[in-house]
Amino acid sequence: MGLESSKWAIIFLVCWLYKNVSCNSVEQKIYVELNNTVPCVRLLNATHQIGCQSSISGDTGVIHVLESEADLEWPLSKGPNPPYMVLLESSLFTRSIMMKMKNESNRVAGVAVVVPNTSPPEFSPHTTCPNENTGVYSDNYGPNLAHCNTTVWNPLGNGLSYEEFDFPVFSLKEDNETEFIKQCYLDHNRAVNGSAPQYPLCAMQLFSHMHAVTNTPTCMRRNDINFSINPEMVCDPLGDYNVWGSIRPYNDTVLGHKENESVVIAAARLDSRAFFWEVSTGAEGSISGFVTLLAAAQALREVTHKAPPTRNILFAFFQGETFDYIGSSRMVYDMENGKFVIDLDNVHSILEIGQVAVHSGTNLFLHSDPVSRSNDTVNDEVENFVKNLQSSTAGLSFLLVEPNVSQPLPPSSLQRFLRAQPIPGIVLADHESAFNNRYYESFYDNAANLNLTYPSDLSPEEQLEFVTETAKSLTDVATVVARALYKQAGGDDSQVNTIKADPKIVTQMLYGFLVSSNNSWFQAVMAPELKNILKPSPPEYYVGVVMSSTPTRLVQYLLANLTGAATNLTQSQCQKPDELPNESRQMYSYLWVQGIVPPNSTQRDSFCVRASVRLTKAVSPAFELGEYASKDYSTWTESRWKFIKARIFLVASRDLEMLTLGVGVAVLFTSLLVTYFISTKADVLFSSTREPASAAY
């Protein structure tokens, strides 16, 4: 075989081996990656930082499974192998235990919380007085009502979401990964009769290093002074878009005060939060309210076309309310500065739908502000609004009553309007004083908290259509809200009893927002290019830093479909309606939606929806004004990070690690010496003896 043939044979053999022989990397042999984890991240405001983070290279600790609070003695003092990575069940995820570990953070590398499939009796990591510093009550306005002096709205709040932890805190699902971690602990780490476990030990490593530090003014200043070619931001303002619509359209290019225009605003919040990043569901905290308002908007569609009321009704869905009323404060700011289609003087009254799904009895409560009601004009209008609401319950199974004692408004968007101007307003809620919601702003405020259950033999499509008791209850509330809004707007009294919310629409919305957004109804009302945001799980309701989040888009398209009109426009006409007579993008939004799939067909009947539904920014005015230390507006930002990761592995003893290092160093120096020796003697070791050349005679 020639030299050329041998070369090609070797190349072929190497290629065949490369293709057919698979090898795992050393890293894959050492580490087991954990995929179902969610971190606690760092948030910042004008004065401080909250949340959690790891060191820049991740934090590593020997796993210790906490079985009781008394068991804390092992990781905090007795254990011989600190630092420890503490794994605990959700029942032990309490303020007492977390603060003890925070105070001994030199022995605690991190915490992993196992979130069960069932909920504990109660849990709220929020404060006892939500948004207390950015509402209407202060030393200058109802000082006796400020800081929850008379009413503690969230008595179960332990404040963990607003603490700072110098170690990473991750959540784990109750699944096979968690069982594997526990088994690793039992096999290697569990102390027997108080004796120290033997090496190797099972360890966990958590990566969640945050770039931003100190507070929002500091991180925003660092954003501004980055001189690199590719500047790297360290934090971003929390924000999204508000969704709003009205029964009569407004020209969105004509902003500011409208002469002879009076508007009743119906509002609800869209967002929620939890201790861990992007696991907030907000079933009672936000979804019960905005689903009720969407159903009320749909119930008003026909009657407002048939017998239009004298006043306009504007439906507003605010984002970022959890973080010092981002969305509502931005709308008020825009109204004050001529950047919205109406101003505050056009606002006749406000009805806000709060938490309305967890009834402790047969009553819902009408909360109002006692300070603004000291003004006779405001008081008279509030009393009239109360009458309109109470008279709208005819034929329904509950009553609307005012609290028995004088107390402040609960945490609500209405407070931001009252900071600007005394406007008659009511907050509708299922609690008279303290929240009925035992899981306020936690990952347990989910479908189960609303008793949203389905027969086990139903398919997903049948569950979508199944009218639950919760849906029936919220349908009644939506009916009352719609009737009262129509009366408050000066509608025809003879039409009031014809207004009824649709229980099928309510149950479909509850299923889509709390069980699975990827269902046939949500698919039909969404744009083709947005179909990928629909998942076989509920959306995430944390406001975040990504504009146009899934809840915002869903509410935008649902409100458009529930209050707008289907047109005969083609897709190209829907995209450029201004080229057609009697169509105007200044007055309406035009949305091309997928439509349903007819029976015996595989193609959707797509169509164009015309609706007076808009998006406006829900970013705090503090960032528009550059006032990062503002006391008047929300200043919340979210830190950036490079990656989030968790993994477990077996760690050897310190002695073995040092021995391995020593052997490695010895081998290194030995190889260097051998190399040096061979190099200096190369002419002797590698010299070749040549035969003397033949003499030529």
From TrEMBL:
<keyword id="KW-1133">Transmembrane helix</keyword>
<dbReference type="Pfam" id="PF05450">
    <property type="entry name" value="Nicastrin"/>
</dbReference>
<dbReference type="Pfam" id="PF18266">
    <property type="entry name" value="Ncstrn_small"/>
</dbReference>
<dbReference type="GO" id="GO:0005886">
    <property type="term" value="C:plasma membrane"/>
</dbReference>
<comment type="similarity">
    <text>Belongs to the nicastrin family.</text>
</comment>
<dbReference type="InterPro" id="IPR041084">
    <property type="entry name" value="Ncstrn_small"/>
</dbReference>
<dbReference type="GO" id="GO:0007220">
    <property type="term" value="P:Notch receptor processing"/>
</dbReference>
<keyword id="KW-0732">Signal</keyword>
<dbReference type="GO" id="GO:0016485">
    <property type="term" value="P:protein processing"/>
</dbReference>
<feature type="signal peptide">
    <location>
        <begin position="1"/>
        <end position="23"/>
    </location>
</feature>
<dbReference type="GO" id="GO:0007219">
    <property type="term" value="P:Notch signaling pathway"/>
</dbReference>
<feature type="transmembrane region" description="Helical">
    <location>
        <begin position="658"/>
        <end position="678"/>
    </location>
</feature>
<keyword id="KW-0325">Glycoprotein</keyword>
<keyword id="KW-0472">Membrane</keyword>
<dbReference type="InterPro" id="IPR008710">
    <property type="entry name" value="Nicastrin"/>
</dbReference>
<keyword id="KW-0812">Transmembrane</keyword>
<feature type="domain" description="Nicastrin small lobe">
    <location>
        <begin position="39"/>
        <end position="212"/>
    </location>
</feature>
<protein>
    <recommendedName>
        <fullName>Nicastrin</fullName>
    </recommendedName>
</protein>
<keyword id="KW-0914">Notch signaling pathway</keyword>
